[in-house]
Amino acid sequence: MATARASSGLAYPERFYVAASYAGFGGSPGSSAPAGGVSRFQNDVALLLYALYQQATVGACTVPKPRAWNPVEQSKWTSWHGLGNMASTEAMRLFVKILEEEDPAWYSKAPELTAEPIINVETLKTELEPAAASASGNGDSLPKTKTVSAENGLLLETQDKDVITEGIGSVGIYDQWVAPSVSGQRPKSRYAHGAAVLRGKMYIFGGNHNGRYLNDIQVLDLKKLTWSRIEARELSGSLDSSAIASVSPCAGHSLIPWGNKILSIAGHTKDPSEMISVKEFDPQTCLWSNLKTYGKSPISRGGQSVTLVGNTLVMFGGEDAKRSLLNDLHILDLETMTWDDIDAIGIPPSPRSDHAAACHADRYLLIFGGGSHATCFNDLHVLDLQTMEWSKPKQQGVNPGPRAGHAGITVGDNWFIAGGGNNKNGVSETLVLNMATLVWSVVMTVQGRVPLASEGLSLVTSTHKGEDFLVSFGGYNGRYSNEVYVLKPSHVSDLQSRIIDGPVSDTIAAMLPTTDASRDMEPEIEPAQDKKIKEIVMENGDSEPLNIRNEVTIRLVEALKAEKGELEGTLNKEQLQMLHLKQEFNDAESRNIELTKELQSVRGQLAAEQSRCFKLEVDIVELRQKLQAMETLEKEVELLRRQKATSEHAALSTHQRQSSGGVWGWLAGSAPDQSGP
Predict the structure, then answer these.
(1) CB-CB neighbours of 19 under 10 Å
(2) DSSP structure string for 464-488
(3) Could you tell me the CA-to-CA distances from 30 to 53, 80, 88, 95, 540 in Å, in that order?
(4) N or C: which end of the chain has fewer CB within 10 A?
(5) Residue range 646-667, pLDDT digits in tens
(6) Alpha-carbon gap, residue 147 to 598, rounded angstroms
(7) Tell me, what's the pLDDT at 113?
(8) How far is residue 119's CA from residue 620's CA, in Å, rounded to a whole number?
């Protein structure tokens, strides 16, 4: 999420002490006890503000931890102690940042300050008649235009009804920001939102307003300059109604058009997830859907840069949910939806957020500006996406000032930068960098507190009748904006500066003249130290004879045609290789399907064997039970046999005794017993 660094021109540390006084603290270096005003914030915010105030005025926490029976003082100590050795200046700036997120209008309410006047600015420096002549010279007819003083200090340009229907094409003045007349209900003012152009319409999603995240989708028809709102829902499963819910609000995310849909990557949310989220919006169904990604997903963040390079998204830096700055590099393959964590060589940019990024020649990733909690940057870093090596090339032209929260958009080789803040106020100039020559120049400069000198604004490009237009929206510089501004960049650079894309070939380099002149742009080729991007020194001159220019142009065109043939041949080879890779992918997918079927068959057989084994185990248990019963029966039979043998033995003994008694009786003269057997 972009930070609101442009709300005032008051410098640090005075700005911090004014903010501390407004928040309810002493507001001076010697004060430490908070006043009752801090109670206006939620407990967690009040504790963080207290900790930052103590860190900024006293330093790191060295006092002993309070006793457990004093939970308030213990919570304050824990919050302060958690800041560790954070620098005093960083604590001051983070204090002001959090206050501005919670109470964006605090600066105008502070009793120590007076309201800053709004300075009206004239952006249309040329008169309407010369502008009309210039437009007609480019093949466009410019109707009579009326200018109306706008509330924000810029000039509104209104046209007749037949011109308004042309949308952004009605802007006929070059290199000037113009506020065109738009219709429809304007969106809520915001900053740190996402913007993307799809089929002639600019889609605005989310953002921050008064410290609260938004989740609406607003659409500006660039042909009619008419606002409309889309009632979008989020799809969490199938298309039944039970799977559709409201969209989660977010800010500091990135919107990327992809095919007929729009991707939303990362962003700050009220309840952040652990890993980054990738969502897809379908304008046809007005539904958001969460895309499943593979590989090692990056941690959640906001204020990062996401750049479309071919079929991949290159993400750099940002600020995580714990306000820690990042400088990691990740690439998402949009065909396989797989994240790749890149460990590039060289010295990367320092951790930062709210920077701008662009891609040149589908090979070089450029990172410009951004900020930490304590400072803003104006450095330029280049990453070679083929060798994955960082470099910091030499820049030429004007020296851009430090800024963060700015917006950037590319038109050909030109990279336009607008807005941003530098910890004191909004940045007033709109810059352009020729990415082939690394030469900075100023397109125009605004004055006063206007939306174009704001942080968190968005910048997109659209084409109308062969001409390019830049469209900005929103921003924050002490007040939130919902204004739309359009700039039509002039194409004053000649053929030499436009044809160079990446490293310059020897054929073209040999044909470029190296004359000292004073007005027309002629390049002089110098070998770059890093051998990646050629630095071309642009010099002026209109004293060169016309026939020499024509000859140079003809030779350049011939050289271009030759290189075009080479590029077409290379493109055909790449296409054939792509077809071959697609065929291999299809074959691998077919093999995968066959292996999946075999795996399912083996799983079925395994399940059947497991069932049979279970039945066998049941039978074994039953047989064991029967065997135990048979053993019991055998024991009982054996017992009966023993009892029988015992009985027989006893009967035999009795019989023998009876027989023996009869003989002795006979011998004694007694008669034998006749009753026996």
Answers:
(1) 27
(2) ETTEEEEEEE--BSSSBB--EEEEB
(3) 12, 18, 15, 17, 59
(4) C
(5) 998 888 888 887 776 655 555 5
(6) 75
(7) 55
(8) 97
Long-range contacts for 72-78 (Cβ within 8 Å, ≥24 apart)? 75/47, 76/47, 76/50, 76/51
87 is written with which tokens? 């620098």
**pTM for the complete prediction?**
0.58
Contact between residue 242 and residue 35 where contact means Cβ atoms under 8 Å apart: no
Secondary structure element (H or E) that encloses residue 640, with its range: helix 546-668
Strand ranges inside 345-427, DSSP E: 356-360, 364-368, 380-384, 389-391, 396-397, 407-411, 414-418
Q: Considering only CA atoms, give the Rg of the chain.
A: 41
CA 618 – CA 501 distance, rounded (Å): 78
CA distance 227 to 308: 27
Strand (E) or helix (H) holding 100 = helix 88-102
d(CA 150, CA 132): 22
Q: Which residues contact 9 (CB under 8 A, 6 or more apart)?
A: 116, 424, 425
Q: Which of 97-111, 337-351, 454-468, 634-648 has the lowest mean pLDDT?
A: 97-111
Say how far apart CA 332 and CA 512 lie, in whole Å. Answer: 39
Q: Which pair of tokens denotes residue 318?
A: 């940002």
Q: Kindly give, in sequence order, each residue whose CB lies less than 8 Å from that of residue 195, ignoring residues fewer than 6 positions away.
A: 202, 203, 204, 205, 255, 458, 459, 460, 473
pLDDT tens digits along 524-577: 333 333 433 333 333 333 444 445 446 667 777 878 888 888 888 889 888 888
> How far is it, in rounded angstroms, from Cα 565 to Cα 523?
24
**Residue where the block lists tokens 């109670």:** 39
Phi and psi, residue 418, nearest 5°: -135, 150
pLDDT in tens, 597-637: 999 899 889 988 988 898 999 999 999 999 999 999 999 99
| DSSP bridge partners of 157 | 147, 180
Looking up tokens 């940002």 gives: 318
Measured in whole angstroms, how far is the alpha carbon of residue 487 from the centre of its chain?
Answer: 27
Tens of pLDDT along 249-304?
999 999 999 999 999 999 999 888 899 999 999 999 999 999 999 999 999 999 99
Whether 99 and 22 have beta carbons less than 8 Å apart is answered as yes
Decide if pLDDT at 38 tops 80.
Answer: no
Distance CA(321)–CA(303), nearest Å, equals: 11
Q: Three-state SS for 477?
A: coil
Query: Can you tell me the distance from the alpha carbon of 573 to that of 567, in angstroms, rounded to the nearest whole number?
Result: 10
CB atoms within 10 A of CB 397: 17
| Amino acid (1-letter code) at residue 256 | I
Strands (E) located in 3-142:
none
pLDDT tens string 120-157: 333 333 333 333 333 333 333 333 333 333 333 344 34
Cβ atoms within 10 A of the Cβ of 151, count? 10
